[in-house]
Every structure is written in C-alpha cells, then in structure tokens.
Amino acid sequence: MYVDTIDIRPRLSISDSLMQRRLLSDTYATEIVSRIDYPFSQLRVGGGTVAYLGMRGAHLDGWVSDFIKRNPAPRGCTVVNLACGLDSRALRLLTIPAADDIKVRWIDVDLPEVVELREQVVPFPPLEAIAGLEYTLLPGSVTNHQFITPLPNDRPTIIVMEGLSAYLQPEEGQAMISNICSHFSSTQSSGPVGENEMIFEAINGFTLALQGLLGYLKKTEAAVYWGVDDVRSLEKLHEGLVLVEEHPVCSLEGVVNSPLAGRIFWWLCSWFEVSRNSLRHLRYVF
C-alpha cells in the first residue's frame, strides 16, 4: 500500500502535539490521520524522530513564511511543494488572516496515486475565499522532468523538498535540481538573479551507511540512496545556484525541546564533523 512510504508526517505531528513539544503545532494532523485506515503505531517511530520531524517542519515553514513576506503584492510569489504527500504546510501557512499585500500561488506536487489519496483525506485549502491566494494540487513525478513544464515561472518562486532528496538516486536528484533551476532561472523570467530559492534537508554518506538502524525505514521497506557530503558541490549543477544557509540539525533551536535521549544524541553528533553534518537543512538561491 502506498501509504507505507508517502508520508508519516501527519501521524508524527500528532505525536508532537501529544508530547506537548510545540515544535510544529500542526492542528490539521489529527483530522488527516483519522481518515486513513493504516496501523501507524506499527512504524515504531521513536520520540527523537518525532521531535526531529517537528523541528524540520517548523524550520522549513519559517523559510517559506519569510520568502512570502519578502515577495509581496503586486507581483507576489509562487510556492512549489514537491513530494507533498499528506503534508499540511499549505493549510498551516495560508489559512491565516492574510495581509493586504500578500499574493501567493501555492502548488503541491506528488505522484498521481498520492494526489488521489490526498484529495480524499487532506482538507482542501479554501484559498479561493482569501484575496491574493490560489492553490493547485498537481499530479507528477519528480523523476519525470516533464512535471516541471507546466509550472509557472513568472514570479519569484521557492521550491520546497521536504523528505525527498535522500530517497532519490544521486543522478535523479541532480537532474531534478538542474532542470528546476533552468526552468525558473532569470533568463526565462523578468526578475533578477537570485530571486528564486530552493530549500530541503540532505543527509551525508555517513547517514547513508547507517540507514539500517532506522526502524521506520525497515518497517516500510523504504531506503535512502543519496548522501551529499559537500553541499556546495550542488552549486555546480546550475550557474547561479548558490548556497546561502546551511544548518546541521544538531544546531537547531528546537533540539532543546526533544526528549532527553534525543538531546543527548544530537549533542554527541555535534562533536565530530561527519556526524554533525549527518543531516543538514539547506537553502539555495538561484
């Protein structure tokens, strides 16, 4: 069943709430999970993983919110959320009282079967009723680069890839980044160089080698394939692609809200470069 691998974030967001960590405060997760007939408890996801996914969601939310604020009306901006799964980011960030200068085009993208499930279980953002906001749920595979063609590139755009990059083959991920940058580059739009952004998390080769220790991967029979040791090497994929922020997870503020075992784990990771860089949040401009 494709629920196995598309998204455990809603279930973990519920756990986040029950733990009262307030890392993400995803009030939509309970409603989403209640509509899915799936034994989430059998995934054996520990409190540390729950806390991390809460941190990740909150950190990327912050980057997206900041991008929206920096690109107000009349031109506005576009948010492209790749491999959206059952994620409720659009609901979290857009179903709030909008300021007069907000103009956002939000596009969630995932596989056709995921889009079908999402339409059944995820509340559709009532954005038509909010001035300056529009929402699209688009079927497409990130490994088939034809999905990029219909994406509008007439505004500053932020590409969000949460929980995606590590699951791609290296050549797939590199081609995806290159093609996205080419499509949204300033040569095809009217804006200046660097007006677009790309945000995601990346593991390194150390994490790749230790994936057998991750219980939820074994339970869902999923695997990770792409580890990036030199995150600046991705700049070579497209002229103008520049890394502007790099945050090892062990340095995030939310670590202090993790369970004790999680805090100890991330503290130990911070001792050595290879473990400190085992999982990083990255922001590029292009």
TrEMBL record:
GO terms for biological process: methylation. One of its GO terms (molecular function) is methyltransferase activity. SUPFAM superfamilies: S-adenosyl-L-methionine-dependent methyltransferases. The keyword Chaperone does not apply. InterPro entries: Ppm1/Ppm2/Tcmp, SAM-dependent_MTases_sf. Gene3D superfamilies: Vaccinia Virus protein VP39. Keywords: Methyltransferase, Transferase. The keyword Methyltransferase applies. This is S-adenosyl-L-methionine-dependent methyltransferase.
